[in-house]
Amino acid sequence: MKRHRNGEIWNFESQTPAAGAGVILGLDGGTTSTVCVCLPVAMPPAGPLPNPLPILSRAVAGCSNHNSVGETAARETLQEVMAQALSKACSSRAAVQAVCLAVSGVNHPMDQQRLLDWLRDIFPSHVKFYVENDAVAALASGTMGKLHGCVLIAGTGTIAYGFTEDGREARAAGAGPILGDWGSGYGIAAQALTAVMRAHDGRGPQTKLTKNILDILGLSSPDELIGWTYADPSWARIAALVPVVVSSAEDGDEVANRILYDSVQELADSVIAVVRRLRLCDGGDTFPLVMVGGVLEANKRWDIGKEVINCISKVYPGADPIRPKVEPAVGAALLAWNHYIKEL
Q: What is the predicted pLDDT for the residue at 1?
């Protein structure tokens, strides 16, 4: 292992046993936050998993999407959150047996290879590594570590990702806001901001979004939205306006309702495209459809997740919606654990 510039984050290891009980690390890295959990290797390889799972520790840090914050900052976040999790578990890198890094922005084999090389530079040579897109961890959180079915993530960004039992995979969306993550939190909020500006200059209909967004931001005029937006156009900051769009729709605003209905169709189309390419529903087969992300959570009356499921079920009635009982970081850890046990 080489010593890194920020190697002091591993100083806690001098106070921990040289080789304690084996552990697994699972990371879910997104645009908003990064979570790492630590699980023991010693779980029954056959039969049901323990309930509740014996999570040794959990740590949280900031954004680790290299497309959003740059590669250096993303890696610093990943290293920081892994160190925190091991420190809280009174463990060390010497005890780690496997790591699953599931990070948004990992979209190409080159992305995976760069992270694999970096991980090998940090951990001992015996550690097994698995680098995936964060959608894979989200799917595993609903299937408890098994890669089969389709996951739809709709948070700050959005992606649909699917796996067949024989290992084929496909994805739709997930290319970021510039290339059209419509249906994501960012996409919904950006359309709402656009609608406010269109209403203000006469290109579009009047909308309750104008007053509701200005009120929550403490602004007095739509003209001030220009400065607010470009002062810090981070994806998560824009996406935080989604609840205003939902509440405006629930109050009967036609513009807000149209934005949400269009977003529902976009999200459903992403899943339908993945299921069609993988033939997950051939012959009326059922498949797990894991639903993850704040956009898909139920609201008072406007339930985006429910509307998405209704759209998908009209085309593929075999879709079996699953709301995960564990977070994606746990799914990543279970994925690493399953791989590790199989290799043994």
A: 38
The pTM (predicted TM-score) of the whole model is 0.82
Task: Tell me whether strands 169-173 and 23-29 are parallel, antiparallel or unpaired.
Answer: unpaired
Q: What's the pLDDT score for residue 298?
A: 67
Residue ranges, the chain, pLDDT below 50: 1-5
Give pLDDT, residue 6. Answer: 54
Distance of CA 45 to the CA centre of its chain: 27
Q: Count Cβ atoms below 10 Å from residue 288 Cβ, excluding itself.
A: 18
Per residue in 254-288, pLDDT (tens digit) is: 999 999 999 999 999 999 999 999 999 887 789 99
Query: Would you state the structure tokens that stand for residue 180, as one six-digit string?
Result: 């059209």
The 3-class SS string of 86-122 reads HHHCCCCHHHEEEEEEEECCCCCHHHHHHHHHHHHHH
pLDDT value for 287: 95
Bond preceding residue 288 cis, omega within 30 of 0: no
Q: What H or E segment, with its residue span, contains residue 266? A: helix 254-278
Alpha carbon dihedral 297, 176, 264, 139, in 10-degree steps, equals -50
Whose structure tokens read 């059209």? Answer: 180
Instruction: Please give the structure tokens belonging to residue 158.
Output: 């959005």
- Measured CA to CA in angstroms, residue 294 lies from 39, 184, 238, 269, 321 at distances of 25, 10, 14, 19, 16
- Sheet containing strand 34-40, edge to edge, reads 57-61, 34-40, 23-29, 96-103, 128-132
Which domains, and CATH codes, for the chain? 7-144+326-343 (3.30.420.40), 149-322 (3.30.420.40)
SS3 label, residue 252: coil
C-alpha to C-alpha distance for 138 and 332, rounded to whole angstroms = 8
- The pLDDT tens digits for 196-212 are 999 999 999 999 999 99
Pairing of strands 149-154, 158-163: antiparallel
Q: How far apart are CA 192 and CA 265, in angstroms?
A: 17
